[in-house]
């Protein structure tokens, strides 16, 4: 059974840093699409950063120059380093991946990790 296991997150003061990690378990197939979404209370889930099927790396305008993704293909994982955090970054962050299972490409979600930025 394919799962996305998230770790990291937590609380930070504005201007601080946090890291998120997402590891794909249950398969060695690498995701064709891999990334991070977030959902703040009362708001829709939005894409924060990701790698598209054509290999294009994407960052939401609000996190450019502050958030950095890194992919470890050997570990089948994706990390997100979040620097210079702002209160508006407070949200539950979800890892997202599209993985081919031999017949279909299925979309998977991590369990969600809370990130809270507050003074």
Overview of the structural elements:
This protein has strands at 3-8, 10-12, 18-25, 33-39, 46-51, 57-59, 67-72, 77-82, 91-100, 105-109, 113-117. The protein is an all-beta fold and 119 residues long. Strands 2, 4, 5, 6, 9, 10 and 11 form a seven-stranded mixed β-sheet that branches. A hairpin with a 6-residue loop joins strand 4 (33-39) and strand 5. It is elongated. The termini are far apart. The model has no long low-confidence stretch (mean pLDDT 97).
Spell out the blueprint of helices and strands.
Blueprint: E1 3-8, E2 10-12, E3 18-25, E4 33-39, E5 46-51, E6 57-59, E7 67-72, E8 77-82, E9 91-100, E10 105-109, E11 113-117
Parallel strand pairs: 2-11
Antiparallel strand pairs: 1-3, 3-8, 4-5, 4-9, 5-6, 7-8, 9-10, 9-11
The span between the termini is: 40 Å
Shape: elongated
Could you say which structural class the secondary elements and strand pairing correspond to?
mainly beta
Largest sheet: 7 strands, mixed
* Succession of helices and strands: EEEEEEEEEEE
Beta-strand content estimate:
over 45%
Low-confidence stretches: none
Write a concise keyword list for the protein shown above.
119 residues, mainly beta, four-stranded antiparallel beta sheet, 0% helix
């Amino acid at each position: 059974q394919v799962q996305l296991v998230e770790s990291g997150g937590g609380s930070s003061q504005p201007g601080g840093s946090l890291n998120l990690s997402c590891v794909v378990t249950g398969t060695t197939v690498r995701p064709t699409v891999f990334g991070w979404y977030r959902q703040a209370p009362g708001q829709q889930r939005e894409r924060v950063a990701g790698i598209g099927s054509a290999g294009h790396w994407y960052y939401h305008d609000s996190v450019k120059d502050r958030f950095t993704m890194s992919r470890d293909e050997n570990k089948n994982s994706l990390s997100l380093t979040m620097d210079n955090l702002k209160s508006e970054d407070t949200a539950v962050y979800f890892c997202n991946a599209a993985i081919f299972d031999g017949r279909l490409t299925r979309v998977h979600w991590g369990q969600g990790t809370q990130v809270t930025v507050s003074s």
